[in-house]
Every structure is written in structure tokens, then in C-alpha cells.
Amino acid sequence: MRKILTYLVLFLLFAYQTDSQSIEQYLSAPFPTDLTASPDGKSIAWIFNSEGERNIFLAESPNFEAKKITNFEGDEGIGLGELSFSPDGKILAFVRGNSRNSSGEAANPAQLQENTDFKIHLIDLTTLETRYFSPGSTITFSPDGQALVYKIGPNVYWKSLSDSSSQQERLFVSRGGSNQLSFSPNGEKLAFVSTRGDHSFIGIWDFEQKKLTYPETSLDKDSYPAWSPDGKQLAYLRIPNINNLLSFTAIKESNPWSIRILDMETMKAEEVWNSGTGPGSVVVWDLPAEADRLWWTPSGQLVFPWEKNGWMQLYAVNPASGEVKHLTKGQGIVEKVKTSYKKDELLLTSNIGDIERRKIYSLDLNSFELEDLSEKGNINWSPVRLEKGLAYLSATATRPAWPYIRQNDSSEPLAEEFFPQDFPKTLVKPLGLDLQAEDGFKTRAQLFLPPNHDATKKYPAVIFLHGGSRRQMLLGFNYSQYYSNAYALQQYFAANGFIALTLNYRSGIGYGMDFREAENYGAGGASEVLDLMAAADYLAARPDVDASKIIPWGGSYGGFLTAHGLAQAPEKFLAGVDIHGVHNWNNDIPVFDSWYEPEKFPEMAELAFKSSPMAYVENWEDPVLLIHGDDDRNVLFSESVELAEVLRKQGVEVEQLVFPDEVHSFILHSNWVKAYEASIDFIMKQIQKP
């Protein structure tokens, strides 16, 4: 009997595992971030995260040969970011370290016996020597390049770059937090946002007079200060507070927001544009996902994002006449906006023209003409303008993110020698799908079929559910490392004899306001669970899928949906992998909404609980793997602890993987590998059960 079982296990392993490459190889390519250009467009820098070893790379004209200019070694679990060139391009500043939790502890998943707080460093680009500068983050060079302003905790500090003996000094005393630091063009003043909970002010610090003023205070959230090129005006947004609205619930209308301009001579402000009521009256804080939301044109107009037509796109207003122009048209969103050293263009990352990918556009701020700078069928993002060309990040369906440079109408990858030679070569191109849920809502999905797919066979299937929920999985490797890793695991599953489906459920981005703000989603009804059910039914109906072996997996919001699926419809699924998922909205919403105390809002709390997996947990029968880091600042670790307790009492099979001192998006590369290896082992064990 033992021999028969051994042969059976070997047969199943042979039947399902057709790729000899490990998941570690699928995650081996260095992931690029923080691509930035010098003010003259002659140099670029970026960060490669190579299996957890994070370093800065530099490439300079005319040849743009990449060279590593820092030497941090090993998978230490310390973040690296905020690359910033000095105005003269001779210094590159960066921040290394991790954020603190509510107890004031900086993340330290590698248990290093050192301080892992944020620290600012400077690289002399002439000698390539690196020196420690100060504790802190949120760095901004003064326009003359002689000093840095930065934050330590909620406070703003100043320190000279030229005087090595100078001490850092706190610039000013202000209640609340200080964010969105912005120098005036001549460097004489610093605008910032003073955040105070349900309202915020625009503050101005005068360096010469050493005086702090709040020129125009309000009951609203005044934000995103933008200096005019001559420094005579300061534009900003006035955004009304939205009281007692839970995060993760739909909102399409609110009190109108507006654009105001402050005259720096008279210190009087006036409204120059108003969103009006109805669609577009809500400011979507995570779109466009950059630091700025207002951009001056050379002629004195203001470009801004607005969702009036149901898509987050760009418009321009003439403050003098009030005339408004729609600049980006078509189905799709403008996701990110970057300025250019040329001063008369904006560089956009958008899915207009290719809704399942990302494209790069140049917006001419004189003519308002758009130029498509993308390669057809690729995923392009993070563009920076060079003196003679463009640098950007790019990915495809079969190759992960990589830095590219375009000169003379020809694009070439940078630092190609750092791409791993043993990266898998058998990746497949996913197919785009439309799915319709029981309530008629249409969603999008991507289907990965195994190489040499045989339509006469029946394959096990996995469903990946992204987090957020304000995310979009693309027809290729993602621009986020978290989701690039998830895409790689879907490819691994396909290579090992699975049909893998990735679901872009309602409440995600990329498909417009009505999709993102779907009725009754999240804590307002969890209507997106219907999309998961539609995905499961679609797979079960396919003749090449074994309907008894469908397994959902996902992290964060994806863990939330995985738990919902196993709790609401155990008959549709074999098992699930729930990575740092939310299980009771009433526990986790206070992490995002400090005002929310469930006992004070009984109607909200009742609906939020009914929208949670825990409301259906008594139906849960299927095995589950729970994965969580116990320093998670997004989803309480107790969410997994409590779910495990309840499921064990019900006799449900629970496996676990816990990472001490790890945060939500794992900092240690080794933890990504361990999490995915555990997921693979768990899923293989479930499908091999007799």
C-alpha cells in the first residue's frame, strides 16, 4: 500500500510540475525604482533591488553606461529611495532606512543590531564618495543648491551643504504635521501643508524674516501648493472635509473642491476654478499618484487632474478668463504626472489607448498637444526627459521591469549585464477576458494557460486577487514590485501545469470612476465578492479545468477576498492562501480612519461586519494557509490570529507562516521567496490529496 501511495505522489508531481525552475529564479531579476534625471538632463540615476540587495546606479551622457555607485550588501531589509539631484547636478541625495510603527519602532525584519531609522546620505558625483548627512527623509534641495530641507518625524529641518560644520536646525514650530514642502523659485520662502486632522492650512516660512504665516486659513483641507514660475503667485487646492465616511466605501459626489491663487504681494487669495457638483466633485487622493496636482504653464495657465467625465484626466484653466480645456481624452486614466527639466512639458503615465497596460505621453504646455512616446504592446512608466532623449522603465508579458533609454528614435535597455542569465524563458502571454457577475457587473481578468496547453486535459486552477483595492493588474509584469512578484508566481503556476486567472475586480483603478466606486463595494457591502464567484464559475465551466481544484490566493485586499470566497462558497474552492488579509472591517478600518469607533456608529459597524469574511466564517470548511508579518502597519496582525482561532475551533485545517518584525509589503526578499514557496507547497499538497 505504501508503494502504491509513493507512486501516486510521484505521478501527481510529474503531472502537475512540468517546470524545473524554482520560484526564486522567477523573482531573481533586479527590480528598478526611483528613476530620476539631473536638472540638465545629462545624467540619470535609479535603484535596483536585486534579491533584496538595494543599490543606486548612475548613467551619464553621452554613452549612458550604467555603474553602481553605492555598495550596500545583502538582503538586509532596509529601504532605499528618494533620489534627488542637486540643482547643479553634482550631488545625489538619497534616503536609506525604514518607517516607524505606532510604537515608534523602525521596521527591522532582519533583526539587525543597529538603528534602521531614515537617514539622509549624499553622493559627490565627481568622486563618487558617499557621506552621511543627517537623520530624516522627505528631502528638498534649496534652489541655489546650498542647503537641504527635510523632515524628522512631523517637523521640518534645514542644514547647509557647503558648511560641513553646520548643525541641523528646526526651521519653525508648527502644530500638526508639515508636508508637501515647496521652495519659491528664488529660495526666499518655503510653502508647505500644515495637516491638522479634518483640516489643513497652507503655511509659508520666510527665511529672511524667520517668520511663519498662514495667509488664508479655512475649515477645509488646503493642499498641493504650486509656485508660479516668477514666484509672484501660489496656487493650491481647497478640498472640503468629508465627515464620517468610512474608507473602502464608494463615493462619487461630494461638496465641490476648488483651485485658489494667492497673490504674494497683497497676500490675498481668490478662487479661479470650482469643480461643481456631481461627477468630479471628489478629489481622489491616490490618482494621480505623485506629489503634485497643479502645474503652471509658461503662459500662466494651470493644469490639473479632474474626473468630470468619469476618468481621471488632465485639464487646464486660464485664471484670468476661467476658460477650461480638456487636455487628455479617450477611455483611460492619467495615473502619474512628472515635470520635465525642459519646463514646458509634462510627462504622463496613462492607460489611454491601451487600457490593460501603461503608456507614456508628453504634454506640451504651450500648445497642449500630446505625443505618444510608448512602444506598442509594452508597459511603460516613470519617464524622465534627457538632454537628447528619454529614459523610462518598461516591461512586457515575458520580461520584468527594466530601465531603458531612447535616443535618435532607438530604444535600448540599460545595465543589461545585470539581468540574470537563468531567468525563466518559458513565460506565456496572458489572454484578456471579460467576466460578468451575477448582478450584471462586468469585470476584467487575465488568463495564463500552461505552455503546450492541451485542451483535452483537466488542469487545476488558481485565482490571484490583488490588494488595494485601488490597483490594476496588467497584461504583463507590473510597475509595482509587490505585483510584479505576484505576476511572476502566476507565471510559475502556468509553467507547472495550472490554469492561472488574475482578476481585476470592481473597486480597482484603470477602468474609470463607475468601476472604481462600484456600488456597495468594500465595507459598504463587499459586492466585489460577486466578481470572485464569477471567476470561479468561469473556470469551473471550462472543459480544461478540474472544477474540484480551484484555489484563490492574494494579499491584503486579495486576502480579504480569498477569505470571503472560502467563507461564503466553500463548495466552489478546494483551499486558499490568505496573505495579510482583512477579516473584520471594524477591527482594521481604525488603522486608516482614526475617528472611527464602531460602538459610536452602530449602523456603519453592522454593515461593515456584514461586509467582512468573519460574518460568514461558520460556513468555512476549506484548508487555508495564513501568511503575515507581525509588524504590519496596514492590516492588523491580530486579523490572522483571530481568524486562526475561530477556524481551529471549527476543525478547519489551518497552516501558517509568520515573519517576525516584517511589515505589510515584505522588505526582505527572502520573505517573499519563503511566502511563495510555502504557497506553492501548500497548493500542491491540496491538489494531490486523494
Automatic annotation (TrEMBL):
Residue ranges annotated for the Dipeptidylpeptidase IV N-terminal domain, each copy included: 297-401
UniProt record, GO biological process: proteolysis
Domain called Peptidase S9 prolyl oligopeptidase catalytic: residue spans: 490-689
Keyword entries, A-Z: Acetylation, Hydrolase, Protease, Serine protease
InterPro entries recorded: 6-blade_b-propeller_TolB-like (IPR011042), AB_hydrolase_fold (IPR029058), Pept_S9_AS (IPR002471), Peptidase_S9_cat (IPR001375), Peptidase_S9B_N (IPR002469), WD40 (IPR011659)
UniProt-listed SUPFAM superfamilies: alpha/beta-Hydrolases (SSF53474), DPP6 N-terminal domain-like (SSF82171)
A single MF term (Gene Ontology): serine-type endopeptidase activity
Record function comment: This enzyme catalyzes the hydrolysis of the N-terminal peptide bond of an N-acetylated peptide to generate an N-acetylated amino acid and a peptide with a free N-terminus. It preferentially cleaves off Ac-Ala, Ac-Met and Ac-Ser. Also, involved in the degradation of oxidized and glycated proteins.
Name of this protein: Acyl-peptide hydrolase
Organism of this sequence: Algoriphagus formosus
